[in-house]
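Obj: model holo form, ligand = phosphoenolpyruvate.
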Amino acid sequence: MSKHRRWVYRFDQLASVEKRCETWDEVKGLLGGKGANLADMTRLGLPVPPGFVVTTAACRAYLAAGALPDDVWDQALEALAELESATGKRFGDPVNPLLVSCRSGAKFSMPGMMDTVLNIGLNDDTAAALARLTGDERFAWDAYRRLVQMFGRVVMGVADEPFEAVLRDARKRRGTTNDSDLPAADLREITRQFRALVRREAGREFPLDPQLQLREATEAVFRSWRGKRAQDYRRAAGIADDLGTAVNIVAMVFGNLGAGSATGVATTRNVSTGEAQLEGDYLRNAQGEDVVAGTREVLPIAELARDLPAAHAELVRIAQLLERHHRDVQDIEFTIERNKLWMLQTRDAKRTARAAVRIAVELTRERRITRREALARVTPEHVDFFLHPQLDPAAVKAARAEGRLLATGLNVSPGAAVGELAFDADRAEQWAVARRDVVMIRAETKPDDVHGMLAARGVITSRGGRTSHAALVARQFGKPAVVGILAMEVDGEARTAQVKRGAATTTLREGDWVSLDGTTGEVFLGKLPTVQPSLDDPFLRELLAWADEVRQLGVWANADYPRDAVRARELGAEGIGLCRTEHMFFETERLPLVQKLILATTAAERADMLARLLPMQRADFDGLFRAMDGLPVTIRLIDPPLHEFLPRHDEVSREVTVLETRLQLHDGDPAQLERELAGKRSLLGAISALREENPMLGLRGVRLGIHMPELVKMQVRAIFEAACACKRDGVRVRPKIMIPLIAHNNELRVEQTLLDEVAREVMAAAGQRIDYEFGTMIEIPRAALTADQIAEYAEFFSFGTNDLTQTTFGISRDDAETGFLTEYLQNGILSDNPFATLDERGVGHLMQIAVDLGRTTRPDLEIGICGEHGGDPRSIDLCHRLGLDYVSCSPFRIPVARLAAAHATLAHGKRAARRPAGHPRRPGRDH
Ligand code: PEP
Ligand code: MG
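Output (holo structure tokens):
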């Protein structure tokens, strides 16, 4: 680096910064977000108080050296001198003093995590001058006491409480609860006491030299980058530790100079609902921190139009200009000093999911952004919001106004939860069993706590980040959760939690009601009403229609019943990618038939049960075909291990023991007991015979179909009888028959011969021709590795990535997620849960091989995915890149998948056009 390295830029020197940086992102990296935007507003000719930025590079240099490099301070002093000429005031001048603020501002906003000192430059002389200049002695001493307090706390490390005690005493003496009732004389005395307090607590005097004040404040703000609060926040929010913060040194403007003055915050649109109108709050005659401190009642911005009409009109004009300039909703801070408006900050506004969708759509309609930009600005998480109950926005606003916002932590698992606090998992479970609504609260959770989390409506932890045990488990089970609440300390022994709220502390006890919002990370005291946001939101519908125009991947649904199929179509599904036929077998009137079928000892008995099941299955498929009306319906033949349909071995074994004991003790009619015992023993024998050490790797999937051909034949007969009946009624049908868990092409050959025969038979009997396809799931590595051979029989592939993940990793999908997988994620052995997000390197590689080999044999091979990953945005991105035709997911994930698929096209571009997904190729199969 050159000797003349530049550490300081005035707000009106943005051009020099831009010369040094390639992108706006780099400008923000150097000046911090706040500094960059203040400089930008200055360039736009907006009323920004003059000021300058000491860069993040200076912060890094200071932190590395442990001292402020001389040239940093020299350049700051130079800029200060220029500030003096710009304002016509002088720093420390006993006649016309300049006062400045010293504000932190990193590249990424870290709200409230670092420090700021206001009113720098005040001492006994300049305070007296300020009183003379403003004609307001009270104001001058109030500003001075605020400086001593803020400087004492931030720079000299004095706790806030003793300052507050002094103020409390003063208020008491005056018989008031409001600081603004304290007269100038009291404030002068308070300032004196504050200085004595600093001397006592910090062991040195509050510095009266303004330059020393500024230098020490700058260094303290730099140091606050390393403060515990800031570090914890960064770790949780994934912000790099080595960025440093900039310091903005800005000429003070005062919102507390009487009736013509005010200070406030606003957003250019409503960030809860998205409505296009300026929203915000302001305080008359107040200084910035009063608005956010929540200690005084704020007024809605609309009132400013009556109060200070000229300033209001200017604010509206500037708000619109800023929104147009940034092409996005802005969050602004302003101060009005004696009717003159000053802009103190602008940044892209944080917003709720509902607002994000509406704002994106309306900005597009207003031609501010393109449809593609609108799509890019809405995240899958925003769409996910519409699927979970939420706290009622009106109630949230009221709760905030009433000071019931308890704390904010990390928003790790979306949705709202309202319940009574339980401080351990057992208590949470007991209360849930007793039908009480519970929110489990812990310092952090461990595997022993999972039962409590499952029982609770929501989870709060004071510690931990986005990949803490609590966050992972909550997301996995869809429990709303807020973790990492820095202001909270949970004492599991005492069953209390202490929450710091400004200077006060609130104690939470077991049984207290709280309402948490896992979407925003907020926790409120008391019981707030919830609402279910509607997927029918017209803005969401419009946005998703745009997504459909962009995306290339089809979006299908995993649906087993006609009612799911109807829902899926309403949500935009273009087909059924997986109907798990065995789910229908679990219904109450069917399970006994299925059990008898499995336990049958003669062919006749088996045929009888199948004959009774056939009409039921036929009705299932009939309903699906009618609901989908011509869209593809992929029906997977029976898959699970048979033991899943039978009672558990240990239960039946226990029943046998009980019966044996009762018989010995003559407890009941012996003949009856003998009969029951014989029945149970035979059941136990059959269950034992079917018992497998590794049932998920045992007799299931295609193996079961080959082992029990009558069963799959019955299923195929039901499919074709239903299809023929539908066709007769004028309903279009597109059945796709899918074979699960194959490892070898010979398995498919055997099945295909068998099933084609049944299909032909049924069609001939009905005198109908049904276009159908025959395909397979790819769920085992060998199937992927031999996909060229498999494609000789299969006309379509569907990746069953639940099993493919299980078989590729060799870890049990049923046990791992509640077991060691959490440890793996916490230790960083795995960065993502492979059952939630596709493992690109391993499973993704096998998929790539299968796609390539499969299409070598059959270039028009249709390929989809129907594992859980089909609804996961990052996995959908991979599916797009792998060249799949569609993703299939549970109906409620469909809106998310439609957007994620559009994002994938936006990110990677379109793939070469191929045959449209689901188009039948073997009409009638009458070859
Ligand atoms: C899969 O394995 O990904 C799949 C969809 O099948 P199932 O979950 O029913 O085993
Ligand atoms: Mg499977």
